[in-house]
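Reviewers of the previous submission asked for a worked example of the structure-prediction workflow described in the proposal, so we include one complete record here. The input consisted solely of the amino acid sequence. No template or homolog information was supplied to the procedure at any stage.
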Amino acid sequence: MAPSNKRDHRAEDDLLDWFTISYRTLYLAAAGLLAVVGSVVYVMYFRDQPAQVVEEVAPPTVTTARFTTLEGSVKVKPVGTFEWVTADRSMVLKKSDLVRTGPGAAAEITFFDGTVVHVRPDSLITIEETSEDPSTKARKVAWHISSGEVNFQTVRKNVPGSETEVSTPTARGTVGENSNAAIRVAETGDSDFRLFAGSGRLETKSGQTYDLASSEGVKVDASGKAGPKVGLPAMPTLLAPPHQAEITYPNPNVATTLLAWKAVEGATGYHVMVDYSAYFNRPLVDRKGLRDSSVELRGLDVGKYYWRVAAIDKNGEEGDFSAFARFTVASAAGSTRGDGPPPPLVIESIDTRQNILHVKGRTEPGATVTVNGLRIEVDGDGSFTDYIPLESPGRQMVVIRATGLNGGVNERKQPVVVSY
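From that input alone, the workflow returned the following structure tokens.
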């Protein structure tokens, strides 16, 4: 019988399966070995390495100065332009911008570092610096007073090297943190530096240098020569009427209101101011040289008033004004305000630009006009035009009141919308 040539396929399949299993085992073993090696490398080289920290980059500081309060006619001449434009609170003040306040006007400017500058009426200043060093974060703000008067307050400087600088045509000074000061430049060119709190250093055009402490001042003449450093009297404390007091009279037109304050040691006189505004830019009462620590005011109209006092020493040096106090004069229920007929009151125009109300009109000569209790100036012919800041945004009612010489009252109400 011839031998069979038929292949044993079962044996071949078994052999193939054996090789497949062997290769698979090798692959699995190699993968396992790589995993072990990777784990060892991670433990040895990466586990103990400090985690990578992604440093957040702080956004750059916006180094600006802005108006926070505007009263009356305030103009700005932006750098690179030739026209004066009306100031508003949306403006950003830059280096070399000019700011001018008109008669009876005032402005409050806040720099990005928190320094607050109050520009008094009939003043001209230049923004000289508002910057931050990108490497040290030291901040610098500066302004120049060409004429008029400014009061200002600095805040704590959290970064070493930060600086507040102020200058006049005849002197330049640096002011420390948490300081309160006033600088006046007269029409003659003389400058008056008064530091009420904090510290400062002054260098005159002629090369004189002074270190100033709280309650000290220096006067510099138009040639840049300074006189001796002088002490300033302390700030008075107001007694009556206290802040937010309401005083009611049967007939305010003939009533007498007493203002009283605590006497200051070493003071030989006092400077009293009463205004419808806390900025005292159009004072109803502005009296210097009062010997007593009180004064009587007769015939105040119904409305709100602000008052403050500064002490004056024997050398004529005036100290810092007290914090203001506000009081309200009211008429008793059922009493009459006056026997005469109401004066004419014509409102020719009234409009708002952001939070500034512009009102224009006319009444009888000699009449008193108030807008929301704030007295505005009336010309000799009875005409008036003024700009009044409104504190609250949104729709509101503006009350315009004219009081005649005979006590008669005429009132107009006008709804306006204030937007910031």
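The first strand starts at residue 65 and ends at 71. We consider this example representative of the routine output the project will generate in years two and three.
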